[in-house]
Amino acid sequence: MKELQHLNKYFLKYKKQLLIGTVITIIARIFLLFTPRYVREIFVVIEKYLKGGVSEQVVKAELTEVIIYIIAAALIAAIFTFFMRQYIINVSRYVEFDLKNEIYIQYQKLSLNFYKKNRTGDLMNRISEDVGNVRMYAGPAIMYSINTITLFIIALIYMFNEAPKLALYTVLPLPVLSIVIYKLSKEIHHRSTIVQQFLSKLSTYTQESFSGISVIKAYGIEPQTSASFKDLAAESKGKQIKLAKVQAWFFPMMILLIGTSNLLVIYVGGMQYINGEIESLGTIAEFIIYVNMLTWPVATVGWVTSIVQQAEASQKRINEFLKLEPEITNTVEAHTKITGDIVFNNVTFTYDDTNIQALNGVSFNIKQGETLAVLGKTGSGKSTILDLIGRLYDIDGGSILINDIPIKDHNLTDLRKSIGYVPQDAFLFSDTIKNNIKFGNQEATDDEVIEAAKNAQVHKNIIKFNNGYDTILGERGITLSGGQKQRVSIARAIIKAPEILLFDDCLSAVDTETEEKILKNLTKITKGKTSIIVGHRVSSAKNAHKIIVLDNGKIVQEGTHETLINVKGYYQHLYLKQLSEASSNKD
Ligand SMILES: Nc1ncnc2c1ncn2[C@@H]1O[C@H](COP(=O)(O)OP(=O)(O)OP(=O)(O)O)[C@@H](O)[C@H]1O
């Protein structure tokens, strides 16, 4: 139960609802327990009448009265049971909501390294399946426990007062029932976890084959994928059948044990009646009702125990993530000013998961309003420079200064707010184009969205869609071409109007003519702002104030377009190659 203590803060938060729910549960059970006593009354009245003790009129009146009491008690119990669920189950939904939000907020805080170390499926499971297990503890387990305890205490008091020996025989099989149900619930849970794992394997496989359907069709491998699907589905079916087998034991076991208790009541009660140890047959009827009333709550003891165990295991997994401290944290509360002066001083950085040294003694500086172009072979460390400016990772050596202040001493929120980042793989959400652009600035007007799209040279494409800017992207909507995606992503960064703009190879999928237009617009927009353009084309770099060429994490060339084309090296080679490509294209 140690791990589940994490939920105590939520129970404290919803203590009022829980308290009301508990009181209501107790009241509901008290009224429910009136019925067996009234049934006994009926027997007593009839027995009296049969022995000639009372007239027909009196017996009718007494019976009517008792029946009215039974109906009234059942009605009141039903109404309170309704409210019992309303209060206690609702609390479990509130706790589920709070816990999901707590986990989600923690996920957002954790650094990129966390996402690399943990699989998406695992992250999803903790927020859905594990929280679901915990909810079962916060709601049903608590409700059934209060229910069982109340019912048991009151019923046992009644039963032992009435006929102690009979009471003892009646409750004798109940612990056995509880243990059997506990064992069964554990096995059911074990097998359903396996079924769940298989289902998610199956859905991952299906999802992947739908996403890659064009590749599957192009390679004509439909029969192979169908065969793999069939194998997976067959395995899943086997696990489902194994689960169904153990589930099938649940109710027969309950019926068997209830039956045993009923038989014991009838046999022991009957013998006691014959021996004159109990006065009325009504006591036997009353006890049979008790047995049936107690069976389910007793069965739930086993069930609740397994729920609590599952919840404990799930909460342990959740706590593991909640306890993680983000590697990158904001240590500065006060706002810090960022205008765009960036200095890299002998910066070294190694990705700790791959141990790849991405940057090795990199130094450069850019002033506010300047443009830096970063070129180099693939894997030379270009994107890493941009990630470090956004402080997605902390450096191992050297220093990064932004406006003469070490990057770590900047308010992290201010730093990220001052950056507009266009990643290498443009990621767009399944939402409208307009909202995807407004992601950069939620307050932007429609005119500003259009302006940004025009500057990114994507406006003309967007208005050709039937729904224009309201066109939904992604699974439910249309798919944009690689170049269109890149340009929407550029519009998103532009609309933010940040002090620093980082473009990570984001013009790779646009033709040189469009690239030219975008770069021209960017020159206009980025006036007074600092921009870093990472790319593989000389065309993206030639107007930059400064160009650096990276190789294997080191700067191997530095200068302007004019200086670099005149020195032997990567830049000149690239320039000549692209020049000859351009002229052969013209031919
Ligand atoms: N998230 C990461 N985790 C581990 N290693 C990484 C990560 N990102 C990059 N690397 C490694 O660091 C090195 C530099 O990568 P980086 O992405 O900065 O290169 P790049 O110059 O931007 O390459 P490209 O032009 O192909 O985009 C590469 O060897 C790469 O494998």
From TrEMBL:
PROSITE patterns: ABC_TM1F (PS50929), ABC_TRANSPORTER_1 (PS00211), ABC_TRANSPORTER_2 (PS50893)
Gene Ontology MF terms: ATP binding
Entry keyword annotation includes Transmembrane: yes
Transmembrane regions listed in the UniProt entry: 18-39, 66-84, 141-160, 166-184, 246-267, 287-308
The ABC transporter domain, residue ranges: 342-577
Highest taxon of the lineage: Bacteria
Main location per the UniProt record: membrane
Topology term for the membrane: Multi-pass membrane protein
Keywords associated with the record: ATP-binding, Membrane, Nucleotide-binding, Transmembrane, Transmembrane helix
Record has Glycoprotein as a keyword: no
Subcellular location: Cell membrane
Pfam families given in the database record: ABC_membrane, ABC_tran
Boundaries of every ABC transmembrane type-1 domain copy: 19-310
PANTHER family: ATP-BINDING CASSETTE SUB-FAMILY B MEMBER 10, MITOCHONDRIAL (PTHR43394:SF1), ATP-DEPENDENT PERMEASE MDL1, MITOCHONDRIAL (PTHR43394)
Protein name as annotated: ABC transporter ATP-binding protein
Species this chain originates from: Mariniflexile soesokkakense
